[in-house]
Protein backbone atom coordinates (compact mmCIF):
# COMPACT_ATOMS: atom_id res chain seq x y z
CA UNK A 1 0.00 0.00 0.00
CA UNK A 2 1.40 3.38 -1.03
CA UNK A 3 0.33 6.97 -0.43
CA UNK A 4 0.55 9.89 -2.85
CA UNK A 5 0.03 13.33 -1.29
CA UNK A 6 -1.06 16.13 -3.62
CA UNK A 7 0.40 19.48 -2.50
CA UNK A 8 1.34 22.84 -3.95
CA UNK A 9 2.78 25.05 -1.23
CA UNK A 10 -0.01 27.58 -1.80
CA UNK A 11 -3.76 27.78 -2.13
CA UNK A 12 -5.64 27.94 -5.43
CA UNK A 13 -3.03 26.09 -7.50
CA UNK A 14 -5.46 23.33 -8.51
CA UNK A 15 -4.50 20.44 -6.23
CA UNK A 16 -8.09 19.58 -5.21
CA UNK A 17 -9.22 19.54 -8.85
CA UNK A 18 -6.25 17.33 -9.74
CA UNK A 19 -6.98 15.01 -6.80
CA UNK A 20 -10.62 14.64 -7.83
CA UNK A 21 -9.62 13.91 -11.44
CA UNK A 22 -7.21 11.18 -10.31
CA UNK A 23 -9.53 9.76 -7.65
CA UNK A 24 -11.16 7.17 -9.88
CA UNK A 25 -8.11 4.91 -9.74
CA UNK A 26 -7.28 5.25 -6.03
CA UNK A 27 -8.64 5.40 -2.48
CA UNK A 28 -9.12 9.04 -1.43
CA UNK A 29 -8.34 11.00 1.72
CA UNK A 30 -8.80 14.75 2.28
CA UNK A 31 -6.21 16.26 4.63
CA UNK A 32 -7.47 19.83 4.24
CA UNK A 33 -9.26 19.69 7.60
CA UNK A 34 -9.34 23.46 8.14
CA UNK A 35 -11.20 24.23 4.91
CA UNK A 36 -12.21 20.94 3.21
CA UNK A 37 -13.70 21.13 -0.26
CA UNK A 38 -13.06 17.80 -1.97
CA UNK A 39 -16.47 16.61 -0.74
CA UNK A 40 -18.13 19.24 -2.95
CA UNK A 41 -17.01 17.33 -6.05
CA UNK A 42 -17.19 13.77 -4.76
CA UNK A 43 -20.48 14.09 -2.81
CA UNK A 44 -19.66 11.46 -0.16
CA UNK A 45 -22.37 9.56 1.68
CA UNK A 46 -21.34 9.23 5.32
CA UNK A 47 -20.94 5.68 6.64
CA UNK A 48 -19.14 6.50 9.89
CA UNK A 49 -18.96 9.73 11.89
CA UNK A 50 -16.79 10.20 15.00
CA UNK A 51 -15.77 13.07 17.26
CA UNK A 52 -12.24 14.36 17.24
CA UNK A 53 -11.28 15.10 20.83
CA UNK A 54 -7.90 16.71 21.48
CA UNK A 55 -6.64 18.64 24.47
CA UNK A 56 -8.75 20.05 27.30
CA UNK A 57 -10.95 23.04 28.03
CA UNK A 58 -11.66 24.86 31.31
CA UNK A 59 -15.36 24.97 32.24
CA UNK A 60 -16.75 27.18 35.02
CA UNK A 61 -18.71 25.56 37.83
CA UNK A 62 -20.79 28.20 39.62
CA UNK A 63 -21.69 25.88 42.50
CA UNK A 64 -18.19 26.24 43.95
CA UNK A 65 -17.61 29.94 43.23
CA UNK A 66 -17.25 32.42 46.15
CA UNK A 67 -16.85 35.45 43.86
CA UNK A 68 -13.22 36.10 44.74
CA UNK A 69 -12.50 37.03 41.08
CA UNK A 70 -8.93 35.78 41.30
CA UNK A 71 -9.43 33.82 38.10
CA UNK A 72 -9.60 37.06 36.09
CA UNK A 73 -6.01 37.78 37.04
CA UNK A 74 -4.86 34.18 36.60
CA UNK A 75 -5.89 33.94 32.93
CA UNK A 76 -3.32 35.52 30.61
CA UNK A 77 -5.50 34.97 27.54
CA UNK A 78 -8.55 36.96 28.70
CA UNK A 79 -10.66 33.83 28.29
CA UNK A 80 -12.57 34.40 31.56
CA UNK A 81 -15.13 37.20 31.85
CA UNK A 82 -17.37 38.20 34.73
CA UNK A 83 -20.99 37.98 33.56
CA UNK A 84 -22.61 38.45 36.96
CA UNK A 85 -21.81 37.84 40.64
CA UNK A 86 -20.39 34.30 40.95
CA UNK A 87 -20.58 33.91 37.18
CA UNK A 88 -17.22 33.63 35.39
CA UNK A 89 -17.82 31.74 32.15
CA UNK A 90 -14.88 30.63 29.98
CA UNK A 91 -14.80 31.82 26.35
CA UNK A 92 -13.99 28.60 24.53
CA UNK A 93 -12.40 30.27 21.51
CA UNK A 94 -9.88 32.07 23.74
CA UNK A 95 -9.08 29.25 26.18
CA UNK A 96 -5.64 27.75 25.53
CA UNK A 97 -6.17 24.79 27.84
CA UNK A 98 -3.27 25.79 30.12
CA UNK A 99 -5.22 24.77 33.28
CA UNK A 100 -3.94 27.71 35.34
CA UNK A 101 -7.45 28.59 36.51
CA UNK A 102 -8.14 24.94 37.28
CA UNK A 103 -5.03 24.59 39.44
CA UNK A 104 -5.08 27.96 41.21
CA UNK A 105 -8.75 28.55 41.95
CA UNK A 106 -8.98 28.23 45.76
CA UNK A 107 -12.50 26.74 45.57
CA UNK A 108 -11.91 24.49 42.54
CA UNK A 109 -14.62 26.28 40.58
CA UNK A 110 -13.24 25.22 37.22
CA UNK A 111 -13.41 21.75 35.68
CA UNK A 112 -10.96 20.54 33.02
CA UNK A 113 -12.84 18.55 30.37
CA UNK A 114 -11.81 16.95 27.07
CA UNK A 115 -12.09 19.37 24.18
CA UNK A 116 -14.21 18.61 21.12
CA UNK A 117 -12.24 19.92 18.12
CA UNK A 118 -14.13 18.54 15.14
CA UNK A 119 -15.39 15.42 13.42
CA UNK A 120 -13.98 12.85 11.02
CA UNK A 121 -15.81 10.60 8.60
CA UNK A 122 -15.58 7.49 6.51
CA UNK A 123 -17.79 7.93 3.48
CA UNK A 124 -18.68 6.26 0.21
CA UNK A 125 -18.34 8.12 -3.07
CA UNK A 126 -19.05 7.05 -6.63
CA UNK A 127 -15.31 6.35 -6.91
CA UNK A 128 -14.94 4.39 -3.67
CA UNK A 129 -14.09 5.08 -0.03
CA UNK A 130 -13.23 8.60 1.12
CA UNK A 131 -11.75 9.54 4.50
CA UNK A 132 -12.21 13.19 5.48
CA UNK A 133 -12.72 15.51 8.44
CA UNK A 134 -13.70 18.99 9.49
CA UNK A 135 -11.92 20.89 12.25
CA UNK A 136 -14.02 23.22 14.39
CA UNK A 137 -13.31 26.86 13.40
CA UNK A 138 -10.46 28.17 15.51
CA UNK A 139 -9.60 24.73 16.90
CA UNK A 140 -6.03 23.51 16.99
CA UNK A 141 -4.24 20.17 16.59
CA UNK A 142 -4.90 19.84 12.85
CA UNK A 143 -1.68 17.80 12.61
CA UNK A 144 -2.99 15.27 15.09
CA UNK A 145 -6.29 15.03 13.20
CA UNK A 146 -4.40 14.37 9.96
CA UNK A 147 -2.47 11.58 11.66
CA UNK A 148 -5.80 10.07 12.68
CA UNK A 149 -7.03 10.35 9.08
CA UNK A 150 -3.90 8.55 7.88
CA UNK A 151 -4.67 5.63 10.18
CA UNK A 152 -8.30 5.49 9.08
CA UNK A 153 -7.33 5.73 5.39
CA UNK A 154 -4.89 2.82 5.77
CA UNK A 155 -7.61 0.69 7.38
CA UNK A 156 -10.11 1.58 4.65
CA UNK A 157 -7.63 0.90 1.85
CA UNK A 158 -6.73 -2.46 3.35
CA UNK A 159 -10.41 -3.39 3.69
CA UNK A 160 -11.09 -2.35 0.09
CA UNK A 161 -7.94 -3.99 -1.27
CA UNK A 162 -6.78 -0.61 -2.61
CA UNK A 163 -3.12 -0.32 -3.59
CA UNK A 164 -2.88 3.48 -3.57
CA UNK A 165 -4.15 6.15 -1.17
CA UNK A 166 -4.47 9.53 -2.89
CA UNK A 167 -4.51 12.39 -0.37
CA UNK A 168 -5.50 15.99 -1.00
CA UNK A 169 -3.14 18.09 1.11
CA UNK A 170 -3.41 21.52 2.66
CA UNK A 171 -1.89 24.79 1.41
CA UNK A 172 1.47 25.98 2.69
CA UNK A 173 4.23 24.05 4.44
CA UNK A 174 3.04 24.23 8.05
CA UNK A 175 2.07 21.62 10.63
CA UNK A 176 -0.77 20.04 8.58
CA UNK A 177 1.53 19.54 5.58
CA UNK A 178 4.29 18.11 7.75
CA UNK A 179 1.80 15.61 9.18
CA UNK A 180 0.61 14.83 5.64
CA UNK A 181 4.13 13.89 4.54
CA UNK A 182 4.74 11.49 7.41
CA UNK A 183 4.70 7.96 6.04
CA UNK A 184 3.90 9.04 2.48
CA UNK A 185 5.56 7.48 -0.54
CA UNK A 186 5.42 10.29 -3.10
CA UNK A 187 4.57 13.99 -3.32
CA UNK A 188 2.60 15.14 -6.36
CA UNK A 189 3.17 18.90 -6.53
CA UNK A 190 0.83 21.08 -8.57
CA UNK A 191 2.69 24.24 -9.58
CA UNK A 192 0.88 27.29 -10.83
CA UNK A 193 3.03 28.78 -13.59
CA UNK A 194 3.97 32.13 -12.08
CA UNK A 195 6.39 33.76 -9.66
CA UNK A 196 4.27 33.07 -6.58
CA UNK A 197 3.61 29.44 -7.48
CA UNK A 198 7.29 28.78 -8.19
CA UNK A 199 8.45 30.41 -4.95
CA UNK A 200 5.99 28.36 -2.91
CA UNK A 201 6.97 25.16 -4.73
CA UNK A 202 10.61 25.70 -3.80
CA UNK A 203 9.65 25.83 -0.12
CA UNK A 204 7.60 22.67 -0.53
CA UNK A 205 10.44 20.92 -2.35
CA UNK A 206 12.82 21.73 0.50
CA UNK A 207 10.36 20.27 2.99
CA UNK A 208 9.91 17.11 0.91
CA UNK A 209 13.68 16.79 0.65
CA UNK A 210 13.95 16.74 4.43
CA UNK A 211 11.50 13.84 4.45
CA UNK A 212 13.53 12.19 1.65
CA UNK A 213 10.41 11.97 -0.49
CA UNK A 214 10.47 11.96 -4.30
CA UNK A 215 8.41 14.62 -6.05
CA UNK A 216 6.37 14.47 -9.23
CA UNK A 217 5.26 17.80 -10.70
CA UNK A 218 2.27 18.94 -12.73
CA UNK A 219 2.45 22.51 -14.05
CA UNK A 220 -0.99 24.14 -14.16
CA UNK A 221 -2.10 27.05 -16.40
CA UNK A 222 0.94 26.35 -18.54
CA UNK A 223 -0.35 28.06 -21.69
CA UNK A 224 -0.64 31.53 -20.14
CA UNK A 225 3.08 32.24 -20.25
CA UNK A 226 5.71 30.11 -21.95
CA UNK A 227 8.43 31.86 -19.94
CA UNK A 228 6.72 31.22 -16.59
CA UNK A 229 6.05 27.60 -17.54
CA UNK A 230 9.68 27.01 -18.43
CA UNK A 231 10.73 28.64 -15.15
CA UNK A 232 8.37 26.33 -13.24
CA UNK A 233 9.70 23.25 -15.03
CA UNK A 234 13.27 24.35 -14.40
CA UNK A 235 12.49 24.81 -10.70
CA UNK A 236 11.12 21.27 -10.68
CA UNK A 237 14.22 19.90 -12.38
CA UNK A 238 16.47 21.81 -9.98
CA UNK A 239 14.62 20.17 -7.09
CA UNK A 240 15.20 16.72 -8.57
CA UNK A 241 11.50 16.29 -9.34
CA UNK A 242 9.94 14.24 -12.13
CA UNK A 243 7.89 16.52 -14.41
CA UNK A 244 4.72 14.63 -15.33
CA UNK A 245 3.45 17.27 -17.74
CA UNK A 246 1.34 20.40 -17.98
CA UNK A 247 -2.30 21.46 -17.87
CA UNK A 248 -3.74 24.36 -19.87
CA UNK A 249 -5.82 27.22 -18.55
CA UNK A 250 -9.21 25.90 -19.61
CA UNK A 251 -12.89 26.22 -18.62
CA UNK A 252 -13.09 22.41 -18.37
CA UNK A 253 -12.43 22.63 -14.63
CA UNK A 254 -15.11 25.19 -13.83
CA UNK A 255 -17.60 23.47 -16.13
CA UNK A 256 -17.04 20.19 -14.28
CA UNK A 257 -17.45 21.96 -10.94
CA UNK A 258 -20.73 23.51 -12.04
CA UNK A 259 -22.01 20.01 -12.83
CA UNK A 260 -20.73 18.70 -9.50
CA UNK A 261 -18.28 16.40 -11.27
CA UNK A 262 -14.59 15.65 -11.29
CA UNK A 263 -12.72 16.32 -14.50
CA UNK A 264 -12.93 13.21 -16.63
CA UNK A 265 -16.45 12.11 -15.75
CA UNK A 266 -17.61 13.94 -18.85
CA UNK A 267 -15.20 13.46 -21.80
CA UNK A 268 -12.97 16.47 -22.36
CA UNK A 269 -9.65 17.55 -23.82
CA UNK A 270 -7.94 16.75 -20.50
CA UNK A 271 -8.75 13.03 -20.39
CA UNK A 272 -5.45 12.03 -21.98
CA UNK A 273 -3.50 14.29 -19.64
CA UNK A 274 -4.92 12.76 -16.48
CA UNK A 275 -4.65 9.19 -17.75
CA UNK A 276 -0.97 9.83 -18.40
CA UNK A 277 -0.54 11.44 -14.97
CA UNK A 278 -2.23 8.51 -13.23
CA UNK A 279 -0.13 5.90 -15.07
CA UNK A 280 3.14 7.68 -14.32
CA UNK A 281 2.26 8.37 -10.67
CA UNK A 282 1.48 4.70 -10.15
CA UNK A 283 4.77 3.70 -11.77
CA UNK A 284 6.72 6.21 -9.70
CA UNK A 285 5.25 5.33 -6.32
CA UNK A 286 5.63 1.62 -7.00
CA UNK A 287 9.24 2.12 -8.01
CA UNK A 288 10.50 4.02 -4.95
CA UNK A 289 13.65 2.08 -4.10
CA UNK A 290 12.45 -1.31 -5.19
CA UNK A 291 9.00 -1.54 -3.60
CA UNK A 292 7.68 -3.27 -6.69
CA UNK A 293 10.76 -3.02 -8.89
CA UNK A 294 14.14 -4.67 -9.04
CA UNK A 295 16.38 -2.62 -6.73
CA UNK A 296 20.04 -2.11 -7.58
CA UNK A 297 22.59 -0.61 -5.21
CA UNK A 298 25.87 0.73 -6.59
CA UNK A 299 28.87 2.13 -4.71
CA UNK A 300 31.14 4.74 -6.26
CA UNK A 301 34.17 6.57 -4.93
CA UNK A 302 32.53 9.79 -3.82
CA UNK A 303 29.55 11.88 -4.79
CA UNK A 304 29.93 12.78 -8.46
CA UNK A 305 32.76 10.31 -9.01
CA UNK A 306 32.94 8.61 -12.38
CA UNK A 307 33.65 5.29 -14.03
CA UNK A 308 35.44 4.33 -17.22
CA UNK A 309 33.09 3.64 -20.12
CA UNK A 310 34.57 3.09 -23.54
CA UNK A 311 37.66 5.10 -22.61
CA UNK A 312 35.57 8.03 -21.32
CA UNK A 313 35.03 8.87 -17.66
CA UNK A 314 31.34 9.39 -16.89
CA UNK A 315 29.43 9.93 -13.60
CA UNK A 316 27.97 6.60 -12.60
CA UNK A 317 24.42 7.95 -12.28
CA UNK A 318 24.71 9.38 -15.80
CA UNK A 319 26.04 6.05 -17.00
CA UNK A 320 23.01 4.24 -15.57
CA UNK A 321 20.65 6.69 -17.24
CA UNK A 322 22.47 6.49 -20.56
CA UNK A 323 21.54 2.82 -20.95
CA UNK A 324 17.89 3.77 -21.31
CA UNK A 325 16.97 0.82 -19.06
CA UNK A 326 17.76 2.09 -15.58
CA UNK A 327 16.02 4.83 -13.57
CA UNK A 328 18.09 6.48 -10.85
CA UNK A 329 16.15 7.21 -7.66
CA UNK A 330 18.70 8.86 -5.38
CA UNK A 331 22.29 9.01 -4.15
CA UNK A 332 23.71 9.18 -0.66
CA UNK A 333 27.22 10.56 -0.26
CA UNK A 334 29.64 9.85 2.57
CA UNK A 335 33.34 10.01 3.34
CA UNK A 336 33.71 6.41 2.22
CA UNK A 337 31.68 6.57 -0.94
CA UNK A 338 28.30 7.33 -2.45
CA UNK A 339 25.45 4.89 -2.81
CA UNK A 340 23.23 5.08 -5.89
CA UNK A 341 19.74 3.59 -5.73
CA UNK A 342 18.31 2.64 -9.11
CA UNK A 343 15.56 0.42 -10.44
CA UNK A 344 14.38 -1.08 -13.68
CA UNK A 345 10.67 -1.34 -14.62
CA UNK A 346 8.73 -4.24 -13.14
CA UNK A 347 8.29 -7.08 -15.60
CA UNK A 348 11.23 -6.09 -17.77
CA UNK A 349 14.34 -8.20 -18.16
CA UNK A 350 17.19 -7.61 -15.73
CA UNK A 351 19.40 -5.16 -17.66
CA UNK A 352 22.54 -6.33 -15.87
CA UNK A 353 25.42 -4.12 -14.80
CA UNK A 354 26.31 -1.21 -17.08
CA UNK A 355 30.00 -1.25 -18.09
CA UNK A 356 32.19 0.03 -15.28
CA UNK A 357 29.46 -0.17 -12.63
CA UNK A 358 29.71 -2.82 -9.95
CA UNK A 359 26.90 -4.05 -7.70
CA UNK A 360 27.28 -3.73 -3.95
CA UNK A 361 26.17 -5.99 -1.12
CA UNK A 362 23.36 -5.08 1.25
CA UNK A 363 25.08 -6.34 4.39
CA UNK A 364 22.36 -8.96 4.96
CA UNK A 365 22.77 -11.21 1.93
CA UNK A 366 24.74 -11.12 -1.33
CA UNK A 367 23.09 -9.49 -4.31
CA UNK A 368 21.60 -12.27 -6.42
CA UNK A 369 22.36 -11.72 -10.09
CA UNK A 370 22.72 -7.99 -10.59
CA UNK A 371 19.91 -6.87 -8.29
CA UNK A 372 18.32 -7.65 -4.93
CA UNK A 373 14.77 -7.22 -3.74
CA UNK A 374 14.63 -4.35 -1.29
CA UNK A 375 12.50 -4.59 1.79
CA UNK A 376 9.01 -3.16 1.56
CA UNK A 377 9.95 -0.17 3.69
CA UNK A 378 12.30 1.18 1.02
CA UNK A 379 15.66 2.72 1.92
CA UNK A 380 15.58 1.57 5.53
CA UNK A 381 16.04 -2.03 4.40
CA UNK A 382 19.36 -1.38 2.66
CA UNK A 383 22.53 -1.27 4.70
CA UNK A 384 25.38 1.02 3.69
CA UNK A 385 26.91 -0.69 0.68
CA UNK A 386 30.58 -1.55 0.33
CA UNK A 387 32.95 -3.10 -2.21
CA UNK A 388 36.42 -4.46 -1.68
CA UNK A 389 37.60 -2.82 -4.89
CA UNK A 390 37.10 0.66 -3.43
CA UNK A 391 38.44 -0.26 -0.02
CA UNK A 392 35.43 1.14 1.82
CA UNK A 393 34.99 0.61 5.55
CA UNK A 394 32.61 -2.09 6.83
CA UNK A 395 28.96 -1.21 6.78
CA UNK A 396 27.41 -0.03 10.06
CA UNK A 397 25.58 -2.65 12.11
CA UNK A 398 22.34 -0.67 11.98
CA UNK A 399 20.20 -0.76 8.80
CA UNK A 400 19.56 2.43 6.89
CA UNK A 401 21.50 5.29 5.36
CA UNK A 402 24.05 7.01 7.57
CA UNK A 403 22.48 10.17 8.97
CA UNK A 404 25.39 12.32 7.84
CA UNK A 405 24.58 11.44 4.24
CA UNK A 406 21.14 12.79 3.30
CA UNK A 407 19.63 11.43 0.10
CA UNK A 408 19.81 13.84 -2.80
CA UNK A 409 17.43 13.27 -5.71
CA UNK A 410 18.78 12.91 -9.25
CA UNK A 411 16.82 14.01 -12.29
CA UNK A 412 16.75 12.19 -15.57
CA UNK A 413 17.80 15.38 -17.35
Considering the chains and any ligands shown, give keywords for the structure.
413 residues; alpha/beta; nine-stranded mixed beta sheet; four-stranded antiparallel beta sheet; 11 helices; 25% strand; elongated; disordered C terminus
Structure at a glance:
The chain is α/β, with parallel strands linked by helices and 413 residues long.
Describe the structure.
With 413 residues, this protein is an alpha/beta fold. It has helices spanning 15-22, 38-42, 70-74, 100-104, 142-160, 175-181, 195-210, 226-238, 252-258, 271-286, 316-322; strands at 2-7, 27-30, 45-60, 110-125, 128-135, 164-168, 186-192, 215-220, 242-246, 294-300, 306-309, 312-315, 327-333, 338-344, 407-409. Helix 8 links the parallel strand 8 and strand 9. The longest helix has 19 residues, at 142-160. The chain is elongated and about 70 Å long. Mean pLDDT is 74; it is low at 289-314, 327-351 and 353-413.
Order of strands, widest sheet: 3-4-5-2-6-1-7-8-9
Number of strands: 15
How much β-strand is present in the residues? 25-35%
* Rg, nearest Å: 26 Å
Low-confidence stretches: 289-314, 327-351, 353-413
Mean pLDDT: 74
Helix/strand/pairing class, anyone? alpha/beta
Distance between the first and last residues' Cα: 29 Å
Helix count, per DSSP? 11
Q: Could you give a short account of the major beta sheet?
A: 9 strands, mixed
Helix content: 25-40%
- Helix and strand sequence: EHEHEHHEEHEHEHEHEHHEEEHEEE
Shape label: elongated
Write the layout of secondary structure elements.
Layout: E1 2-7, H1 15-22, E2 27-30, H2 38-42, E3 45-60, H3 70-74, H4 100-104, E4 110-125, E5 128-135, H5 142-160, E6 164-168, H6 175-181, E7 186-192, H7 195-210, E8 215-220, H8 226-238, E9 242-246, H9 252-258, H10 271-286, E10 294-300, E11 306-309, E12 312-315, H11 316-322, E13 327-333, E14 338-344, E15 407-409
Parallel strand pairs: 1-6, 1-7, 2-5, 2-6, 7-8, 8-9
Antiparallel strand pairs: 3-4, 4-5, 10-14, 11-12, 13-14, 13-15
Amino acid sequence: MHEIVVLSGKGGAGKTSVTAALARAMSVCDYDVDAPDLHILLKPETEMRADFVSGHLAVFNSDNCIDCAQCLAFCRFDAIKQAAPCEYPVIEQLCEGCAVCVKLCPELAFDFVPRHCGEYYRSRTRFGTMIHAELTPGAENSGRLILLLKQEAAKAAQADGAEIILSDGTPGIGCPVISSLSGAGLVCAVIEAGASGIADFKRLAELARRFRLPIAVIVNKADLSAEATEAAMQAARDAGAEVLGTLPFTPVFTEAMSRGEAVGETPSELDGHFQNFADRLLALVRGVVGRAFGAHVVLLGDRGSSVHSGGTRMPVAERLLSTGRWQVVATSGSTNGAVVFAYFPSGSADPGNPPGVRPARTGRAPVRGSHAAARSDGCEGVRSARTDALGAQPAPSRPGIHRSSPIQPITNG
